[in-house]
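Translate sequence into structure tokens.
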Amino acid sequence: MRIGEVAKISRCPAVTIRYYEKIGLLPNAKRTAANYRIYDQNDLERLRFIRHCRNHGMSLADIEKLLSIKDDGSALHDGDIVCLLYTSPSPRDATLS
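Result follows.
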């Protein structure tokens, strides 16, 4: 899939997809001979995960930590997520006060 198709399916702007790729949340996309970015189903699922986390107020740094646990081949458990959420100060903490 090209970036426009992925953007439409994920409801994530192409510029944001490129940014996530630039900062390493998404792997560098494969390229066609014409240098178009090509994404596969794994990339789309990862993007959906990132968007889901962002929609729930997680910072990019927290998402990066979760993805690194997943990328290391470790099983991602609810406890990992809870631990991360409650040990990282974030803007959502201010809303709980």
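Note: The radius of gyration is 15 Å.
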